[in-house]
Design brief:
Mean pLDDT: 96
Helix content: 55-70%
CATH topology of the largest domain: Endonuclease III, domain 1
Radius of gyration: 18 Å
Shape: elongated
Number of helices: 11
Largest sheet: none
Number of domains: 2
Strand content: under 5%
CATH superfamily of the largest domain: Hypothetical protein, domain 2
Low-confidence stretches: none
Structural class: mainly alpha
Length: 214
Amino acid sequence: MKAFNIDIVMSRLKTHFYTVKTPIVDLINAQTRDPFKVLVATILSARTKDETTSRAVTELFRVVHRAHDFDLLSDEELDRIIYQVGFHKTKTKHLKQLPEVLDTLFSGKIPSAIEDLVQLPGVGRKTANLVRAVAFSLPAICVDIHVHRISNRWGYVQTSTPFETEMALREILPEQYWLMVNSYIVAFGQNLCLPRNPKCQICPIADYCPQLGV
């Protein structure tokens, strides 16, 4: 095995990224360039497979184009639209609260700062980082289960929680990769570097990976 080289790894993951299905949040951003829709898609995607999120946002965005469109839907109507996603009742509650919170705190606009985004209903640090990076192209490292698991599998970090992984990556990951690290690793983790039985035999970075925990 070769010594781990993040530049080579990220280059190969970039190549892989363009050969597979685009993660849903990146796809919504590419299609709409709308921070509001990126935020909503990110909230809905939590604990939900991309295929399911895609179906839900496709139906939702037929009737919701801005935050106050949620005011035109009853809780029951909104829940019926997004029922496929995980924790849909909680997400319905958060989306219904969103217009008022945006108006009260941010004059109706989607903020870009992490400390502001986490004040929105249903938005934790992971979601805030992803929205900041994808919707605003501002430096942020979104650490989800894929980034946490795979960064440790590489031995690039040695951490126990996603928050610890984010803090560690902020120290060692070159900033030029911050915006895309989540997108590249999510695509990699969904298709090749699976939690169980990863496809190491066809992995583009197998020669740099110590396969820790595999």
